[in-house]
Structure formats: structure tokens, C-alpha cells
Amino acid sequence: MHRPSRRHVVTATALVAATAAAVAVTTAAGASDTKQQAQHAIKGGKAKNVILLIGDGMGDSEITLARDYVAGANGRLNMDGFPLTGAYTTYAVHADGTPDYVTDSAASGSGWATGRKTVNGRISKTPDTDKAIPTILELAQKNGYATGSVTTAELTDATPAVLASHATDRSCQGPGDMAKCPTDTLAKGGPGSIAEQSVNHKVDVLLGGGKQRFDQKVTDGTYKGLTVTEQARKLGYQVVTDNAGLKDVKAGKPVLGLFAPGNVPTEWTGKPAARGGTDPQRCVTGNANRPAATPTLADSATKAIELLEAKQKHAKQGFFLQIEGASIDKQDHAADPCGQIGETAAFDRAVKVARDYAAKHPDTLVVTTADHGHTSQIVPLEATPPGLSSTLVTNEGQQLKVNYSTNTPGQSQEHTGTQVRIAAQGPQAYRVLGVTNQTDLFTTIRSALGLK
What we know:
By secondary structure, this protein is α/β, with parallel strands linked by helices. It contains 15 helices and 16 strands.
């Protein structure tokens, strides 16, 4: 077994302070909310706003890994501070309704978006008859709420797609990607691609990646020959592509932010896990391939809340906003622990944005959860995993080994079928307690907002 030299550890430890300063966390051990706050959260009542935060692939192992690396074994992330915490099951179903124990992001997202299980790969449609099911965002719009979706993935990726589109297959992201959705095409009288549906829904705030999908040309209908981006402008959207543009947008008109051709680049980099492990490494808290003008998830979350609140300033109803940290999952698939931890830390800062807002607006329900579990496991240093592993030097100066063994090395690592954490504060937050079903989240949000 490879043993690190003392020089490796001392040099890496010297880098700890600089990295620790870059990440804001709660470092005190124990519950970070008082008994009174928990008792208040158990009360029912109606919410004016709901902020739903999804850490894609963020199972308990992924949370623990980020906490150990960033905050320390006895520290706490922002997401650890919710007064009420439970777990929910994530399974998908087959077309006949029998359980499919390991879900993908399309089926899991459709579960909380519609309150019904569906088959893997399907976006907010029934598992058997392939019919559209109304989503929580659509219901919120009909009831006068402002709506928003923020992600670090493409805006047409599965988790954001479940809110404002209905597709037979998650791959049907742009007008040129419709091979698996023949009946969804405009030519067949369908709603079109996920990109077209998203802007047609007039979601007030759409922020993420996926410019390549919106640059595709519409093939039929009113906007034939235009790109989806041009279609969005015709529908009144302000289109922005960087942080400066995002800061300049005004409330009152919908906003489409396209911050990358594909997924938004990760915030951290490092050596991926390897057969036989890696030398002890510190993660690089930066990414040369991430343009400096790219807004962070926390930046986008802050602006989205500002825009949605401003739109509803004089309205009885507030807003529904979903915020996704997408590349926790994507870096887990790639067995890249540093990319994964950096995205979890970035997501955690967005959690802080939401909780800070809710502290000033207690009529806001904030829920943080994941869509499914994933691969990474913290194992003993002396373990010799059969797959891919990496040894990290944490902010505490200690070594930690992470293992990726849900698929053959060289293949994409896989989701797992485990239950995942769900935590909440605000009106109706008590509904997350215990072990619930992923579809129950739909009911929680619908009840909190009083949606008909």
C-alpha cells in the first residue's frame, strides 16, 4: 500500500488556511438552531414563498465528504443548520408501476414536480400512457406566483426540465434533439423540445448553462427558422450570458441567463480518482476553464430571489424558486472528488443565501434535498478498493480516502438507490420529518403555497 511521505502531508497542510478562508461554513458542532426555532418550524401555516434547493446526486456520503474536507469532522455546513430533517425514498417505477429501485434525475425530479412516479428518462409524464402531468411550477403560475429555476447544468437538463416541460425522453433538449420524442415535436402537434417549452412557459427567471440548446433553430410553428434564444426575446425575455449582464437585468420582464454552452464549469479542480489510489492531494479552489465572468450558484440564487421578490412586491402571492447544484452528480459520475466537493461547497453557499432570506422573511418555506444517492464512499486509509480511489488532505490537515466502485473503472460511476436527506424550515416544514416518499415533496410545496 502506498504510504505518503511526511513532506506530502506538511506541504499540503500549509495550504489549508488559504482554502479554508474561501468557504463559509458553520464550524460549531451540534445543532445550530434553537429548540424554539424547531418548535416554530413544526407549526403549519401558509407560505408566501418556497425555495427548493436540489443537490443533484447529493447523498449522505457526498454531504459527509464535503463536510469533512471543508468544515472538519466536527464542523457543520450551512445545510446542516435546518431545524427539521428527515429522509425520503427515491425509487422510480417501470411502465406497469412496479418499482425500479435506482432512479435517474428525470424520474426523480418528475416525482417531486408532479407528485407521481414515472419511468427513468421521462420528464413529467405518466409512466404508462406517456401523458403530461401538471407540475408544481405550472400550478404556482396558475395561482399567481412568480416562478424561477436556477441550475449549474444546462437549463434543459433533467432536473430543471421537470418543472416547465413534458417530454417522453430527457434527451429531447433542443429542436435538433427530438429523435426519442417523435410525438412531442411541433410538427406532430406536440409542445416541442424542452428548451422551447421552458421559454413558452414564461418562467420569470431561468439561469444556468445550455446555450447550445437555445442556439438551435426551431423547425416548425410560429418561430420556425429562429433560434430558441430569438424565440425567447420575442416572448419578452432579457437574455444575458455573464455576471455583468445578470447584475444589469431589471425586474418586470422575464430573464434567460445562459452562462455556458453546456454545463457551467466546476469551481474546483483536482486529480480524479485512479486505480490503486492517488498521492495525497489538496483540491485546487479554482478552475482555469471557468471564465471569470461566470456567476456562482450563490450569485444566481441571490439575483433570482431579488427579481422574483421585486415582481411580487405588491402581490398577495410570492414566488416558487428551484435552485440546483447539478455537478455534484456529474463529478461523482466522473469519480472526481475535488470537482464534486467544490460543487457541494458552492451549493452550500446557495443554501446560505436561501436561509438568510428566510431569516428575514419567515413566511418562506426552504427545503434542501437531493434527487438520488451516488457513488462516493469514505473508506479507511488502509483499504485497497477494487475500483477508483483518491486520498485527500482536508482543511484539518488530515488524510481522507474516497472510493468510487459502482462501475468498472473507465465507465461512468452510477447512482445508488439509497434514501436521501431532506431538511426544511418555515411553514409546513414538519412534513419532511420521518421517512417519506419523494412524491410527498410535491404535496408539501402545494400545501405550503395553497395551490389549487
